[in-house]
Every structure is written in structure tokens, then in C-alpha cells.
From TrEMBL:
It comes from the Eukaryota. The keyword Electron transport does not apply. GO terms for molecular function: aspartic-type endopeptidase activity. Keywords: Aspartyl protease, Hydrolase, Protease. This is Peptidase A1 domain-containing protein.
Length: 112
């Protein structure tokens, strides 16, 4: 892959001149060519970022596009899923949130 700069738009959110990694060969990514998407969005921690480049979530916070550094997924068994950046969609949950500690502080891993 290569590092490049480009304007990135995710829904109504925009990052101008954002530094990102671009894949130059996707042949080893199983199912990539048949999938209905055109990219991969990394949601890793800033500590894992290469070359001190901000992650997309961090860059959106720093640019003022987001009020909170949070994201939420809605992954239904059938139909289309949803990624919400900067909050949650109250249509997809009920009750209160519970928070748990991460198993490893640099990864989205929790004990089950």
C-alpha cells in the first residue's frame, strides 16, 4: 500500500486533505472483489496509528465534525447494517448502556 492525502467524506462528515493508507493490492483479501463496499475504515486506537497520523475518528473530533469520540454499529441478521460516528441511533437499542474494561488497552477486546 501507499500513504496519500485526499478529501474523505463519510455520510455528512468531511475530512479535507486527510492522510490515509491506500491498498494497492487487494487480491489477498478474501471476498473483497465480490463485496458491496469500496473501502475499509479503520477504527483502531490512536496508539496503533502509523507515522503519528490521526485516526479517522480522532481527526473528525479535532476538526469539530463530532461532539464525542464514540461510534456504534447496528448489525441486523438480515438487511443493511449501520455505523454511527459521534453517537448512537436510539432507534436501535432500548435501556441503558453498560461499560466494561478492555482486555487489552490498545484493542477493542473485552472478556465475555
Amino acid at each position: 500500500g501507499i500513504w496519500c492525502r485526499d478529501d474523505v467524506t463519510i455520510g455528512s462528515l468531511k475530512l479535507d486533505n486527510f492522510t490515509l493508507g491506500a491498498a494497492t493490492d487487494t487480491s489477498d483479501i478474501r471476498g473483497y472483489r465480490q463485496a458491496e463496499f469500496d473501502g475499509i475504515l479503520g477504527l483502531g486506537f490512536q496508539s496503533l496509528s502509523e507515522f503519528d497520523s490521526p485516526t479517522p475518528l480522532r481527526a473528525l473530533m479535532e476538526s469539530g465534525e463530532l461532539d464525542e469520540t464514540v461510534f456504534a454499529f447496528h448489525l441486523p441478521y438480515r438487511g443493511k447494517g449501520e455505523l454511527v460516528l459521534g453517537g448512537v441511533d436510539p432507534e436501535h437499542y432500548s435501556g441503558n448502556f453498560s461499560f466494561v474494561n478492555l482486555s487489552r488497552p490498545s484493542y477493542w477486546a473485552v472478556a465475555l
